């Protein structure tokens, strides 16, 4: 078997999210009672299964949350709400007001995946992806943490040479609520020649850069002390301001080594020599692209979780893979990214570090025991579906003496 390893998702500490009252409109809360007579803590979690493989992977992650809660002696309650294409089909909008209210009143929200071919031709305001942008904006989650770690068990699944991929362990800190995805003006018009044009605005205010940069410096401080800020300051004014503010903050973090890199070079270096990176901080659109590129270094986008956090209030946790409508309902999805997102929810959203570590260790144990879904399968390992992979992880969580990981 592969050498032992551990998953370490380190980041700046955020305000502890206190339990909140169950919303009055809730009708689907399912409460999981712990074995302890009187659990001292209880949490409300909003589940957004979404579309495609979303419901399958959320079901598996929910089981993991239930089990670790019972072991660690706290109580969890779930409310499942529609979002994305499922919400469009049900009520005609991608993010119903009731769904957003549930997420706001919860202690944390776990999202599966949204989107699919069925809704691709919808007008923009009726696309599932619009609902996701609205959710991030509504929760005011501005910092997206996306770890990309090449596990020893899966190094051969990477498309890069083993000597390049082995040992990669980086974190992308992506600004999530500003930049070209939200900037105004935006829209469609005609130019002086009467030709149709589409336009968007890349804009950042100083405070938006300052707060995401501080998160990144704190994250790097808790990792290996190296922060690379990625921009396009040789061309874009928004990037020039970005670099100016990030550079000015460096004096407050003398223990962190700051470097800068243009985004085109960063994209190349992620493939050429990914081990040079520890923590990367970048804007919304660059972070979207680079974190997906980094995910493939690990062997499969189906392995990577993410956390979206704000200064206060509940966080949003989700795998970075899409809805994969081509395999939806076929028990072929990889649930591990969602289970690891549940671990990040426990760690960053609820402050339940031990419970998070149980899930992380169990994922590694299942991999060490040779179980693989189709996206990470190779000769000599057992090919399993989404449900069975989840069951194997649950066995590892429930084991009093887990196998060495």
From TrEMBL:
SMART domains in the cross-refs: Iso_dh
InterPro entries according to UniProt: IsoCit/isopropylmalate_DH_CS (IPR019818), IsoPropMal-DH-like_dom (IPR024084), Isopropylmalate_DH (IPR004429)
Domain Isopropylmalate dehydrogenase-like: 44-393
Reaction catalysis annotation: (2R,3S)-3-isopropylmalate + NAD(+) = 4-methyl-2-oxopentanoate + CO2 + NADH
Record note on cofactor: Binds 1 Mg(2+) or Mn(2+) ion per subunit.
EC numbers: 1.1.1.85
Pfam annotation, one family: Iso_dh
Pathway(s) the chain acts in: Amino-acid biosynthesis; L-leucine biosynthesis; L-leucine from 3-methyl-2-oxobutanoate: step 3/4
Key words of the record: Amino-acid biosynthesis, Branched-chain amino acid biosynthesis, Leucine biosynthesis, Magnesium, Metal-binding, NAD, Oxidoreductase
Enzyme class, UniProt record, top EC level: oxidoreductase
Required cofactor(s): Mn(2+); Mg(2+)
Purpose: Catalyzes the oxidation of 3-carboxy-2-hydroxy-4-methylpentanoate (3-isopropylmalate) to 3-carboxy-4-methyl-2-oxopentanoate. The product decarboxylates to 4-methyl-2 oxopentanoate.
Similarity comment: family membership: Belongs to the isocitrate and isopropylmalate dehydrogenases family.
Assembly description: Homodimer.
Entry protein name: 3-isopropylmalate dehydrogenase
Organism, scientific name: Solanum tuberosum (Potato)
